[in-house]
Amino acid sequence: MGNNVDESLAIARAPDAGTGMKDRMGLALIGIGTLVFLVVLLGGGPVSKVHAWWLSFGTVGLGTLLMAWNNFGKGPAGIQNDGIMFGSMTAKGALAWVSGILLTGFYIIIYWFPQYLENLVRICDPMSFALRGIAADQWFLYGTLYTLAVLVMGYRAILKYRHNRYQIIRTLSVMFFQFGFAFLIPGILILFNQPEFYFSYFWPLKYNYLFPNDVNYLLNSPGGLGTFMVFWGALMSFAATPVLTYFFGKRWYCSWVCGCGGLAETMGDPFRHQSDKSLKAWKIERWMIHSVLVFVVITTALLWINSAQEGALLGSLSAAFSKTYGFAIGAVFSGVVGVGFYPIMGSRVWCRFGCPMAAYLGIIQKYFSRFRITTNGGQCISCGNCSTYCEMGIDVRWYAQRGQNIIRSSCVGCGICSAVCPRGVLNLENGGDKERYNDPIHITKEGLSLRD
Questions:
Q1: DSSP label at 406?
Q2: How far is CA 244 from CA 197, 207, 239, 371, 431, in A?
Q3: Nearest CA to 398 among 369, 375, 421, 371?
Q4: What sign does the CA torsion over 144, 147, 153, 155 have?
Q5: pLDDT in tens, the chain (452 residues)
Q6: Per-residue CA distances from 20 to 16, 58, 263 (Å)
Q7: Shortest CA distance to 145 belongs to which of 56, 276, 23, 256?
């Protein structure tokens, strides 16, 4: 009897021990693709650029798709997180740390040492010429890898959450916006000698879209399309964003449109439980994310004042001021830390602690929006699934136990807390303002008590 118990525990703690044939095939394809990546990176191999692209990008993608189907596409529908707390990759084990270091290193190289990626960049030339009419650079390589990650891991997310219509549509949405609006359209614009523009990113996230130099560049671009781009950016930032957030909460953008959120919801899905739920983390989060928002607002305002005064305010510091923000926030925080730390700190590090767009949306959501997550405290069994898998570090169970609506500025409305709840306690709603805050807890001098 004792041996049987030990064997059961061993199986539970080593879920990968029984890797099937399709998993092995998937891992083999990923291994082949990675080997080709290394060979190309080191400048070896007589293979053509097209063949090298498919042997690297293609085999890694195909292997990942095969593993996704084998793990989530068979059997009854329903979320499968078996063994996630014991796997080396998903439990901050050795694989997680190695992956985090590799991701962080990749971002450091692509931002500041792109010359070391020159051979990888070159195998993207055929696709870049076909889409943009020019040779590839490190950002086209990055955009290709980013888009493939969203599409391939998006397929995995659809399989994993295929019992939940909301999750399927939401995942398809981020895949569509990343592939169409953040990859194809910017490339096609370059092909037609128009300014490269990302219609799914707005100020303050895409901070330079309202910087004077960028606005003037767009306004003076040929054909008048640049003028529309300036109008589109201003409309989305100051009109559409408040209106859409009022009706639907910040989820319309953070979980349905944004490429940063798209990568977090697809490639970052296996790591969502790594987010810190402590009160200390919440305090740090509030200070950091709102500080970044204030920083970008002040930066934008100062640059416009400086432009109006023809450089009298900042002088030669104008370019350095904007570059400082771009380096500290746009590169180090959103890229190196935001994605590189997925396996260690969860998938929404940037969205939670640094994104100025998330801060802007969060203020509207908390104080003005109709969106809330309603709870049925009488059905809650305190299993903790909702809190465990909240990528934004919200202790959802605390609210559910009290039957209290969840109205948090950080909530991105991904709906995973509702999807993993075994009792249907949580529901995402866009209700009226009446009783939006249904806090049943009353604070008195004597302590906490239930409201009448």
A1: B
A2: 22, 20, 9, 11, 14
A3: 375
A4: negative
A5: 444 444 444 444 344 444 577 788 988 999 999 998 888 888 876 668 888 899 999 999 999 999 999 989 888 888 888 889 999 999 999 999 999 999 999 999 999 999 999 999 999 999 999 999 999 999 999 999 999 999 999 999 999 999 999 999 999 999 999 999 999 999 999 999 999 999 999 999 998 899 888 999 999 988 889 999 999 999 999 999 999 999 999 999 999 999 999 999 999 999 999 999 999 999 999 999 999 999 899 888 888 888 888 766 666 666 666 677 777 777 778 888 889 999 999 999 999 999 999 999 999 999 999 999 999 878 999 999 999 999 999 999 999 998 999 999 999 999 999 999 999 999 999 877 656 666 655 444 454 444 43
A6: 9, 22, 28
A7: 56
On the question of a cis peptide bond just before residue 270, with omega within 30 degrees of 0, the verdict is: no
Amino acid letter, residue 417 = C
Q: What is the pTM of this model?
A: 0.88
